[in-house]
Amino acid sequence: MAWPDPRTTQNTGMGMGRSSVGTTTQSDVAYDEGLRTYMLKVYNYMASGVLLTGIVAMLFASSGMAADIMLGGGPLKWVIMLSPLAIVFAMSFGQNKFSTMTLQAMFWGFATLMGLSLSTIFLVYTGTSIAQTFFATAAAFLGLSLYGYTTKKDLSGWGSFLIMGVIGLIVAMVINIFLQSTIFAMAVSGIGVLIFAGLTAYDTQRIKSMYAYVAGTDMVGKVVIMSALNLYLDFINMFQFLLYFMGNQE
User: Quick check: 181 and 124 in contact, CB under 8 A?
Assistant: First the structure.
């Protein structure tokens, strides 16, 4: 949801003098500087996580271990595939109990395991098409995140709709495991791109709004990491769905 900005409720009394105006201006400048620092940390964590995932995926695929493990169907394959999901749930439900350092370690572990899991794309698609899709996703992500950060429109109403869309996507993907329909998979991928595009803008605005409530508290570090995780998931999912359209198979 989009949290209200507490600054709009400050200094609304009658008869505001020049000293009050000056104080408000200084407060606004300090708030904006703090917000920029906060958002920069979120984006740095998110970008570093994506970079770590990409490096791990390339190294794991080039080593030949990805083909042996991820295409072999053994139990280790399922451990690698399900571990990131387990970490996301643990971070989401235990963020108030875990320390900031613990959440950091879990975030890097998650990004590493995601790299192992995504290594199979290098076995299926050409390196050129993967790179093209990555840069296309990065450009779209930057534009959508910038929109979410700068727009005056309240995007909080998108939240429930988009979350329901994600649940629908998961159900549709499970169904297509049995149907094995190319047309159905294409439709799911197209809808997936749109849903995670919307989530990118929605999450950015939500993350920005949260700063007003955690600024100056010991919760900032935790919120930065969890926010980076949300944007990471938006980026990676949008990349994977877009790769279905842009990827050229080996």
Answer: no
Give the pLDDT of residue 218: 87
CA 31 to chain centre: 24
Q: Which two tokens stand for residue 216?
A: 């100056």
Distance in angstroms (rounded) separating the CA atoms of residues 183 and 88? 31
Q: Which regions of the chain are under pLDDT 50?
A: 1-22
Residues 6 or more apart whose CB falls under 8 angstroms from that of 44 comprise 228
Contacts of 189 (CB under 8 A, 6+ apart): 241, 242, 244, 245
**CA 82 to chain CA mean position, Å:** 18
- CA-nearest of 107, 145, 51 to 222 is 107
CB 42 within 8 A of CB 231: yes
* Encoded tokens for 191: 């809808």
